[in-house]
Amino acid sequence: MKKLTLLLAFALVLGFVACSDDDNKLPYIPYEPEQPEVPAAGEDPAVQEGTYYLKEVLLCDPAHPEGINIKDKVNFFSSMSMTIKQSPTKLLVSIDDSNSPFDAWGVELPEGDMECTLDTGVVPNELRTVDGLLLATFESNGFTVAFQLDSDQLTYKYKFQ
Amino acid sequence: MKFSRLHKTLLAVASVIVVAFFACNEWDYIDQPETVYLNEEVKIQAKIRIEPSTNYDSRLIFGMYAPKSLDLKNNATLIFNTLNIGEVLGADYPQAVDIKNEKLTPIDMSSPAPDAGGKTYTEAFMEHFGVGENASLATPIEMEWVAWESKIQTYISDKLPGDVAHNQHFFATVDITFNAGSEELECYLGYASLNAVKGFNTSDEQFSPQMFKHFVVDTYEAPALPTLTMVQSVYRFGDIFGMEFSDTATALEGESEIYICGRATLTTGEVIEVTEAVETNRLQPISRRLPNGEYQYLFEKYIYPPFMFNLAEGQKIDALTIWFINADGSVVVTEDYNGVPFVLEQTPGSIHDVEEPETPEEPEMPEEPEMPEEGGEETPEEGTENIPE
Fold first, then answer.
1. Domain extent for B284
2. B85 or A147: whose pLDDT is higher?
3. Measured between alpha carbons, how far is residue B138 from residues B47, B65, B67, B141, B183 in Å?
4. Does residue A27 lie within any of the structural domains?
5. What is the mean pLDDT of residues B319-342?
6. In the prediction, which pLDDT does A115 show?
7. Reduced to 3 DSSP states, what percent helix, strand and coil does chain B have, rounded to the nearest 5?
8. Closest to B242 (Cβ–Cβ): which among A73, A101, A151?
């Protein structure tokens, strides 16, 4: 009986010593509720960006209504591209046609982003600037920009994919 | 018993109807070119209307009567397709699935033909389909019947199943490809199609009617190429447009590099010339395959004149003349081989044309009442009377 009392006493002392070690204390972490990320001024959350490159330039005339691809037959279409940045709140489009000697849209497009809307209520869908300028139509295989330069019987089509 | 004219007519009509009624393999069409050129790849499509069977036991035999020199047995490819068996036979025939692109197998023409009384294929084809209009040719050539068969079983027959409406056909096509060969010839190609099970059994009349089509293999003479051909038949000087240049019979024939030069007269009267052999003005060599398999070699160039002449905004070209030079400019071609200079002419109809607004018609002025001459007496108009005051 004495032995058992001694053993219990020893165990209590050992347990006390172990618990009193400061290093084994868990640190105190105060609770802070998560704050939703607030984008910096001028920044849009969750922007998805995609670049469409000029795949074809079709020249359609009465004898070739489906068009002849002239993209590589002249030397000023090689670097054209269309970049689209989409967020839940904005659709921004920038078009690089810096090497083109003419304005396919009839006006000189601004460098950088243009705020746009995609009208899905029409077929094909129309990509327009907020000022109403038709930039392109959207079909399953990409964006098409149809325009004329001089003859009313010739039509050109940029195909961005 | 004498037949009246009416009886004869009725008998003729009835026999035509009977033949049409019993023939199960009918030609829908045979799309065959009448004239081809030496060594040209000949493509023919035969479309057949076939009455279906309820027995899944038959195959197609397809025959052609053709010049021996073409050796169609070894040189032709025949592809067999059925188009709507399942649709015609319906759900009760689960095996009624269309055959897709089956390559037909040549038949040994000296082997016995099915249900032909011991005759070989050659003999049976000759007996039933004959030689057609080839017999009437002034210089007949050696011809032969060649036949192919399908190996996939299907429902080709004249038996009309009870649940399939009479005269309801399914369609099949046979696409034939062969080389026209190196000899000029004229003949009538013959076509035949029949059921491999019923074969040449005359009582069932299961084979197609006679069909022979005129066929000529001729020498191709390439048309002389004009020196300059515009790719677009319509264009204006503010457009991008293309041209093809043939150096044949010109001073530039044989040059590896050819450049376009030009003189643009602006609407202001100013003249701008481009005369340098620079990379942006270099023509691209192109080739075009002719029907006889040979190639035509020429050069191509697309230009955007405002870019070529480095025009400022607002400047417009009124007249444009071009010419061609070699790399060092020592050889110049300014006109075609008929001596006509390369003066480009733009077609009317520009998107920049301003429609003249319609001039409004001058408003009609109300007629002034005629004043009676002084001292004169007013004559009342007819039908009017002076109303007394």
1. 228-344
2. A147
3. 31, 18, 15, 10, 17
4. no
5. 94
6. 95
7. 15, 35, 50
8. A73
Query: Which pLDDT value is given to residue B322?
Result: 97
The answer to the question of residue A43 being in a domain is no
Numbered residues of chain A with Cβ closer than 8 Å to any chain B Cβ: 59, 61-64, 68, 70, 73-76, 101-102, 148-154, 156
Nearest to B57 by CA among B164, B167, B198, B218: B198
The larger pLDDT score, comparing residue A142 to residue B389, is at A142
Q: How many structural domains are present in chain B?
A: 2
Residues B181 and B248 in one domain: no
pTM here?
0.58
* B285 and B176 within one domain: no
Nearest to B161, CA basis, from B240, B102, B263, B90? B90
Amino acid identity of residue B268, one-letter, is T
Check whether residue B160 and residue B276 sit in a common domain. no
- d(CA B348, nearest CA chain A) in Å: 8
Q: Are B51 and B154 in contact (CB under 8 A)?
A: no
Q: Is residue B379 part of a domain?
A: no
Helix, coil or strand: residue B2: coil
In a domain, B140, yes or no: yes
Establish if A21 belongs to a structural domain.
no
DSSP track, B20-35: HHH--EEEEEEE--SE
Same-domain pairing of B188 and B250: no
Domain span at A78: 48-160
Calpha distance B87→B367 (Å, rounded): 80
CA-based nearest distance A125→chain B, Å: 25
**pLDDT tens, residue by residue, B345-381:** 999 999 998 766 666 555 555 555 555 444 444 444 4
Q: For an interface test with A, give the residue of B229, B233, B236, B239 to mutate (most A CBs within 10 A).
A: B239
Residue B43, domain member (yes or no):
yes
SS3 A31: coil
Question: For residue B348, with 0-12 CB atoms within 10 Å meaning exposed, 13-18 middle and 19 or more buried, which class applies?
Answer: exposed
Say whether both B319 and B272 belong to one domain. Answer: yes
pLDDT in tens, B159-176: 433 444 455 778 889 999
Q: Which of B233, B239, B302 sits opposite A149 (nearest CB)?
A: B239
In-domain check, residue A111: yes
Q: What ipTM was predicted for this assembly?
A: 0.73
